[in-house]
Specification:
253 residues; 4 strands; alpha+beta; rod-shaped
């Protein structure tokens, strides 16, 4: 028997049309959720990458800043340490120079004391028998230094008598020599502990006739000349040889 197809009603057609639409919406929602999850995951991964990069950059920057500050501290410490060393060297050099100056001053005081004692010891020469002969030699030597045949002689007031006798003997010893005693000005008197001022232990001045040139033949001047010439030997005898001077001398040779 031949089957007959039942006609489709409008209600059935509506239900059939709604089923695909409902399925499409569910698929769309699912795909949207997948996209949202994907985007969210991508965003989280990117955020993590940014966070890690930022932490690395921060750590690098922090290390650089710490190292920079360490370098500054080291340089500041080295600068201050250098200043302290320089200050110590300056202080040491200052103290050393001060001590050297004190030693030199003490040595000079000792030398000057010896010179003063030597000068005082010369005061006895003027009362010795040899003083007259010494005056003759001083007069002749003074005239020879001036390279003159006529000169003025100046002496201490207490030596006038002995100087006159010495002048006569000197004129007899040197042909053509003419000596004149200065009666207006005398040399200072001998040194005394109770008197201050200029003093002279003996000897004479031999002066050119015009008064422009004076040859100091006093015992004070002769002592000073002898002292200056022999000062290195005197210092070496009293204080010993200077090792620094020996080194310089050796280097010079």
């Amino acid at each position: 028997r031949r089957l007959r197809r039942r006609p489709t009603t409008y209600a059935q057609k509506g239900r059939e049309a709604q089923q695909p639409a409902a399925m499409n919406e569910a698929e769309v929602d699912r795909q949207i959720n997948q996209m949202v999850q994907f985007i969210k995951q991508e965003a989280e991964e990117k955020a993590n990458e940014i966070r890690v990069a930022a932490e690395e950059e921060f750590n690098i920057e922090k290390l650089q800043m710490v190292e920079s500050e360490k370098q500054k501290i080291r340089k500041e410490f080295e600068r201050k340490e250098s200043q302290v060393e320089v200050k110590k060297k300056i202080e040491y050099s200052t103290q050393l120079n001060t001590m050297r100056l004190k030693v030199l001053a003490a040595r000079d005081d000792a030398i000057q004391g010896m010179l003063a004692e030597s000068r005082l010891s010369l005061t006895t020469i003027s009362s010795s028998p040899q003083y007259g002969a010494l005056l003759v030699d001083l007069l002749i030597q003074g005239a020879q230094k001036l390279q003159v045949k006529a000169a003025v002689v100046r002496c201490r007031a207490l030596d006038v008598k002995m100087v006159k006798a010495a002048m006569s003997e000197a004129e007899s010893s040197v042909a053509g020599l003419k000596l004149t005693l200065d009666v207006h000005v005398n040399l200072p008197p001998p040194p005394e502990s109770t008197r201050e001022g200029a003093s002279c232990v003996g000897g004479v001045y031999v002066i050119s006739m015009d008064g422009k040139i004076i040859c100091d033949q006093s015992l004070d001047a002769r002592l000073s000349v002898a002292f200056e010439r022999n000062q290195p030997e005197i210092r070496a005898t009293i204080f010993g040889t200077n090792p620094n001077l020996m080194v310089k001398t050796a280097k010079a040779f």
